[in-house]
């Protein structure tokens, strides 16, 4: 897999890593869907992706609807927008156009060696989301996912919480539902976790609210060092989330929130003062 894909902390909130094919893909996608004649010449010049070419064949809608739906859902995803294609997760060879050649290597989830097999999913997603993977490796969840004894696969991997094809971060409501699948009164496995996770995610949303306020009202040049520091802290917090050490998540959340609150106060005062001065200035 391409090393320039690594989304480490430094690049996470700055310029995002992209492959050359990334910006071309939406065009290719549109061309494939509507077969617009004006697009085909430029599409030919792009790097070919036999997975998408073949899996977008509209005949599949009739012959293998379920398979076609995977393509459709990927077509709606942030990964598609960012140029992350089928082979980035499934392996295989996108440069070969016949099915057998392209599928070389195991691609489905059932085989133990497949990149999308339950046990291998954290590694596969972690190729790009490397900081988050580091956090996840520290969790009891990861230990359970890796354990040979866990034949029933009663532990969450990345796709349990984010989905596989059209990924999304859980929101306050879905996070509670996801945790409840395993943490509930029946399982007697820490049934308080879902409620705690919901409350913590709510605090994270407060962080985003304060952050936005400062972005809108603050002086962009003056705020630069502040944002550099806070961005790193927020990225660290996402990594900590994946260790699922709820106490540490809470501590880190409150620390960031405190800093943002203080800065928000400063920015609000400066903004009011500035407005007052403007209104008092003679024409
Ligand atoms: C020429 C057509 C063609 C190409 C090229 C192709 N596929 Fe497929 N793929 C299919 C068809 C048809 C199926 C349905 C199962 C079958 O017929 O083998 C399938 C099945 C799959 C499955 C499901 C496997 C399973 O075990 O259920 C995955 C995953 C997959 N393809 C991924 C890929 C990836 C990744 C690439 C590119 C590296 C790719 N395909 C290239 C036609 C293609
Ligand atoms: C971000 C990674 C990622 C991308 C991109 C991706 N997939 Fe997948 N896909 C997965 C994972 C992980 C699974 C296993 C899902 C699970 O265990 O619930 C999967 C499962 C599947 C399956 C079902 C296979 C099975 O064994 O049940 C098919 C079919 C499939 N993907 C096709 C595609 C096609 C076609 C594309 C491109 C249009 C694609 N995927 C893009 C990660 C990805
Ligand atoms: C080839 C690189 C690559 C792989 C492999 C990959 N991703 Fe991503 N992913 C990206 C990029 C690039 C983005 C967009 C930038 C960002 O938000 O960090 C992204 C974004 C995301 C997001 C954020 C979605 C949002 O709404 O903001 C989630 C969640 C995610 N990926 C989960 C996964 C999961 C789960 C897997 C494995 C099944 C996976 N990724 C595999 C590159 C990858
Ligand atoms: C697919 C099942 C599953 C899901 C979904 C799940 N967990 Fe877990 N979780 C487990 C298992 C299994 C353990 C290990 C329990 C044990 O060691 O007895 C665990 C352990 C934990 C622990 C204890 C860690 C420790 O070091 O003691 C916390 C905290 C936790 N989970 C939080 C969460 C949160 C928050 C969510 C939702 C975002 C969640 N879990 C979703 C299965 C799950
Ligand atoms: C038990 C549930 C759970 C598991 C397992 C999990 N995550 Fe997450 N993930 C979350 C939650 C909750 C958030 C939101 C918290 C945050 O953004 O800090 C999140 C946030 C993210 C984000 C940031 C999304 C954004 O909008 O910026 C990415 C990317 C991501 N996870 C990828 C992964 C990858 C890769 C794995 C596997 C190595 C994984 N997650 C495993 C629950 C989970």
Q: What does this entry look like structurally?
A:
By secondary structure, this protein is mostly helical. It folds into two domains: 41-169, no CATH class; 193-280. Helix content is 61%, strand content 0%. The chain is globular. One heme C binds next to helix 4, helix 6 and helix 8.
State the low-pLDDT regions, or none.
Answer: 10-45
* General shape: globular
End-to-end separation: 63 Å
Mean pLDDT: 85
Catalogue the ligands.
heme C
Secondary-structure-based class equals: mainly alpha
Largest sheet geometry: none
What is the H/E order?
HHHHHHHHHHHHHHHHH
Number of helices: 17
Query: How many structural domains can be distinguished in the coordinates?
Result: 2
Number of strands: 0
Indicate the radius of gyration in whole angstroms. 23 Å
Helix share bin: 55-70%
Quote the beta fraction.
under 5%
Question: Care to give the gist of this entry?
Answer:
The chain has 283 residues and is mainly α. The chain contains 17 helices and no strands.
Question: Which keywords apply here?
Answer:
283 residues, 2 domains, binds heme C
Task: Summarize the SSE layout with pairings.
Layout: H1 9-12, H2 25-34, H3 37-45, H4 50-55, H5 60-63, H6 65-75, H7 78-81, H8 86-90, H9 99-102, H10 121-126, H11 130-137, H12 140-146, H13 158-162, H14 172-180, H15 193-217, H16 220-241, H17 246-280
Helix pairs in contact: 11-16, 14-15, 15-17, 16-17
This protein binds heme C (5 copies).
């Amino acid at each position: 897999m391409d090393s320039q894909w690594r989304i480490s902390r430094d690049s996470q909130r700055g310029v995002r890593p992209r492959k050359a094919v990334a910006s071309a893909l939406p065009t290719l996608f549109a061309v494939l869907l509507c077969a617009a004649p004006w697009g085909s010449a430029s599409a030919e010049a792009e790097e070919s992706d036999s997975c998408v070419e073949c899996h977008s064949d509209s005949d599949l809608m009739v012959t293998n609807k379920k398979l076609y739906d995977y393509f459709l859902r990927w077509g709606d995803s942030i990964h598609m927008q960012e140029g992350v294609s089928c082979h980035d997760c499934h392996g295989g060879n996108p440069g070969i156009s016949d099915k057998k050649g392209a599928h070389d290597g195991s691609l489905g989830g059932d085989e133990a060696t497949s990149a999308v097999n339950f046990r291998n999913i954290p590694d596969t997603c972690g190729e790009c989301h490397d900081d988050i993977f580091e956090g996840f490796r520290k969790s009891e969840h990861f230990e359970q996912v890796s354990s040979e004894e866990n034949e029933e696969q009663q532990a969450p991997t990345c796709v349990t919480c984010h989905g596989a094809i059209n990924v999304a971060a859980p929101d306050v409501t879905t996070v509670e539902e996801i945790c409840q699948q395993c943490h509930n009164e029946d399982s007697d496995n820490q049934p308080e976790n879902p409620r705690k996770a919901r409350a913590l995610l709510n605090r994270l949303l407060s962080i985003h609210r304060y952050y936005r306020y400062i972005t809108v009202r603050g002086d962009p040049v003056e705020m630069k060092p502040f944002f550099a520091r806070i961005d790193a802290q927020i990225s660290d917090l996402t990594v900590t989330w994946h260790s699922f050490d709820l106490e540490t998540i809470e501590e880190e959340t409150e620390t960031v929130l405190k800093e943002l609150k203080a800065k928000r106060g400063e920015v609000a005062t400066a903004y009011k003062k500035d407005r007052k001065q403007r209104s008092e200035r003679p024409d």
